[in-house]
Amino acid sequence: MAPNVRYSASKENHLKAIFHLQQEHGIVTTNALAAALQTRPASVTDMLKKLKDQKLLIYERYKGFKLNNEGRKAALQVIRKHRLWEYFLVKKLQFGWDEVHEIAEELEHIASKKLIDRLDAFLGFPEADPHGDPIPDSQGRLQTRRQINLAQLPLGKVAQVSGIASQTSEMLELLQYNHIRLGTRLEIKKKFPFDESLEVKVRNRPPVTLSARVAKNVLVNDDEPITERR
Amino acid sequence: MAPNVRYSASKENHLKAIFHLQQEHGIVTTNALAAALQTRPASVTDMLKKLKDQKLLIYERYKGFKLNNEGRKAALQVIRKHRLWEYFLVKKLQFGWDEVHEIAEELEHIASKKLIDRLDAFLGFPEADPHGDPIPDSQGRLQTRRQINLAQLPLGKVAQVSGIASQTSEMLELLQYNHIRLGTRLEIKKKFPFDESLEVKVRNRPPVTLSARVAKNVLVNDDEPITERR
DNA sequence: ATTAAATTTTAGACAAATCTAAAAATAAAA
DNA sequence: TTTTATTTTTAGATTTGTCTAAAATTTAAT
After folding, report:
1. Which of A104, A119, B85, B99 has the fewest CB atoms within 10 Å around its CB?
2. pLDDT of residue A225
3. According to the CATH classification, is domain A1-136 in 3.90.180.10?
């Protein structure tokens, strides 16, 4: 059994941020990573050299970079830890889903793999964190689910909220106000072409209107409901 | 409300170790602290200067040192976190009491006070960790309990195990083998003056013999049973 | 195809935490 | 009470992660 491979908290943060950025853009740039980590491009370059020496990423001067297999594995372990701790904080310690991120940023750097696997079991092997982001399994496999945003959902088709793209507290507050949260089943009653706003219906509630801006940030599952239900 | 005052993990480790050492010896020496932290006396001196500058301890060159009020408060918060996490690991994640120390050494440095107070509530405000050491409350108050070691227990008086002084895995293994753990009610049936060994009886079990060495490391409550029972 | 602008990297510095080796202070022994 | 031994501190170096300012490279614009 591989012992707990340890990377510093800073390295783990870099790996995680690179992972997220390359999901969107394929290749990652120094400036983009510096912005994501709230640090300086020069600092990023310093760290990239170390990560390259440790064979965690593919990197050539001035040409951008991305994780190799080893780096992706490491990033996924950190993401797994982050999301499991978030789930724990919300489901067991009664935190609001909008206040757990910072604490999870710290907890995700606790090394013990055994701890995380036990926590996973204790929580009942959840598939997604409180924001709807999927949790990688013990081997680091990330199940990808087909998500579309609410603006793309056809009129009259019921779908279940499975993620929130922009997780600002303002956004979360707005959704809370409209009784929309993870797992909520909803249906588009009307689309207004003028401003692309939507009238949305949640069961047992009066219909509400959502702006295009909001709708694009609400992700719903295209197909079947997410598994983790009952 | 005071925001989370943050000390580095290393500083917290120093504070905690000083606290424990001064419990026993009143004043703490550089060498003793270096030994406890597995580091070098020179490194301890370096850190002491910083802690003194932050007004966490009373320190004069060459004369030993101890925590002041501020330092003691900080140390107790770390100890509270350590012991609550240990309790969580054993009671919720099914870890053995002999394997939780190292993980708790990491978890104790997570800053959020809200997290710890929520965890405390989630666990039902336990009074002692899995080794029987008392858990400071949210204000850092440490309830001291009257403990004696098993060798001091009078013949025939039933007492309840409330702590283990030497928590080596060898010791814990031996106790486990003899079905002695926290909360176990036991009674001394016979004392052998030759080697000061004891014959000890646990309810529903055949009597076992414990060496003086072991007996001195098993702490029992003098008086009433510890509160945290049912 | 040059020039200008933006991006990225290097060079050199700094803070935190640690170390080794040597010096200073204190304690113990002859 | 000297001398010796032990303890503690200082001086100077090292590692990790970060920074600023300047140089190198790439990209965009005229």
Report:
1. B99
2. 39
3. no
Best residue of A114, A117, A120, A123 to probe chain B, by most B CBs closer than 10 Å:
A114
**Three-class DSSP category at A80:** helix
The tens digit of pLDDT for each residue in A103-135 reads 999 999 999 999 999 999 999 999 888 888 899
> In the predicted model, is pLDDT for residue A16 greater than 50?
yes
Q: Which fold has domain B1-144?
A: Arc Repressor Mutant, subunit A (1.10.10)
Those residues whose C-beta lies under 8 Å from the C-beta of residue A115, and which sit 6 or more positions away, are B89, B93, B103
β-sheet bridge partners, residue A67: A57
Give yes or no on whether A1-136 and A147-221 have one common fold: no
Q: What is the pLDDT of residue A159?
A: 84
Answer for A46: CB within 7 Å of strand D: yes
Tell me how far apart the alpha carbons of residues A16 and A32 are, in angstroms, rounded to a whole number: 13
- For residue B15 the two structure tokens come to 């504070």
Q: Which residues of A touch B112 (CB under 8 A)?
A: 102-103, 106
**Torsion sign across C-alpha atoms A48, A53, A58, A61:** positive
Q: Where are the domains of chain B?
A: 1-144, 147-221
Architecture of the domain whose range is A147-221? Roll (2.30)
110-149 of A, contacting B, C-beta below 8 A: 110-112, 115, 118-119, 122
